[in-house]
Amino acid sequence: RAFAAPIPPQGTTIASVPLDPALSLSGAGPAYRVLYSTVDQHDQPAVSTGAVFLPPGPAPEGGFPVIAWAHGTVGLGDDCTPSALPRTARDDEYLSHWLSEGYAVVASDYAGLGTPGLMSYLNSVTTAHGVVDSVIAAHDMGLPLSPRWAIVGQSQGGGAAISSARWANEFSQGTGLDYRGVVATGTPANIDKLVYQTGPDFKLPELGPIANAYTAYILAALSEARPDLDVDRVLTPAGRNAANRAETVCTLPLSEELSDLTPAAFFTAPLNSIPGMADALYAFMGTPSTGFDRPIFLGVGLLDRDVPPESTLSFYHQLVANNQNVTLHVYPEEDHSGTVLASMADSTPFLRDAFVANE
Asked: Taking the alpha carbons of 76, 248, 235, 307 in that order, is the dihedral positive or negative?
């Protein structure tokens, strides 16, 4: 788990081994587990693990185009690391679909999951570095990969995908990569504004019990990234305990463990009673809404009770107001998870077009 050697420049593959077949995707050919260099929430060199999946069969001329997969909330503990666990049935079906379309899939775990430090949950800039660096590093492995790449993400990863899309060209400058577009579903956009309103009187509309786990992960990650804020001073004993448990317990068990709470029960005083909190939250987890240079696909299920649908819908209107190239697809009958597979019929031609645009 510790990495003792000096960390090489960002986007370098430090080690790669064939992925245990039990952890691969049903649609994959060769697959690898990788350790690569990136940067953490303290702007320090860091390492992240991840997985690289190739479609079966020979690569086309010029190599396989690449999809960077940004995974959803699994937890912050090392035991929750996606590349060290079997993928869920939904993710197996979804990622195998992209493989069947001829894309290689590069799946970062994000720095701190299975590597030193705490994974900086919903941290926009840090996660963007982690995702972009995973793609740079994959091109460092001698595999038949095209420089053309896109980003696909769900839930926590939907937010990660949007941030990564905003900085994809900037963070990969000089590498020869050719970023094409992003598909984001279940996207927690502008959640900093929601978190800013939390406190002992906070009420959440129609959200499921997972809201407690999300709250705990956000508080744990914010406290670790910004110790100067002293977030603990506005937390109840139950809130402090939840944030402590969030550092190691994966999502489903944490959700069960905290099922007697509500987000309001975490607080003795409003979070925004801490000076500078609005700016701190925006710097940590704000969603960029300008400066995108490639097309954006947003998919939202109106039955989503994990991330409020309004989060994506209002973000879409922000992007439109800012003249960004965005496409919205609404799935009235789908919940948070169901939107992932339901959106494939729309996102598949979207990405196909994005990869051939301007050629």
From this structure: positive
By the 8 A CB rule, do 94 and 340 touch? yes
d(CA 242, CA 244): 5
Closest C-alpha to 77, from 248, 253, 254: 248
CA 133 to CA 137: how far, in whole Å?
A: 6
Residue 2's pLDDT is 58
Contacts of 243 (CB under 8 A, 6+ apart): 216, 219, 220, 223, 231, 232, 235, 266
Mean pLDDT of 95-112: 98
Alpha-carbon distance of 83 to 52, in angstroms, equals 9
| DSSP reduced 3-state for 60 | coil
Q: What are the tens digits of pLDDT across the range 179-204?
A: 999 999 999 999 999 999 999 999 87
pLDDT band with cut points at 50, 70 and 90 for residue 5? confident
DSSP annotation of 306 reads S
Give which of 340, 342, 336, 328 is closest to 303, Cα–Cα.
Answer: 336
Average pLDDT, the chain: 96
* Nearby residues of 94 by Cβ (< 8 Å), 6 or more positions away: 154, 340, 341, 344
Total residue length of the chain = 359
Give the type of residue at 319: L
- Helices (H), ranges, 172-276: 191-196, 210-225, 237-246, 251-257
Across the strands, what pairs with 123? none
- Residues in a beta bridge with 150: 67
Tokens 């094409």 appear where? 180
Q: Which residues of 213-245 are buried (b: 16+ CB within 10 A; e: fewer)?
A: bbbbbbbbbbbbbbeebebeebbbeebebbbeb
Distances (CA, A) of 348 to 94, 99, 132: 11, 12, 21
Over range 154-178, report the average pLDDT: 98
pLDDT at 273 over 80: yes
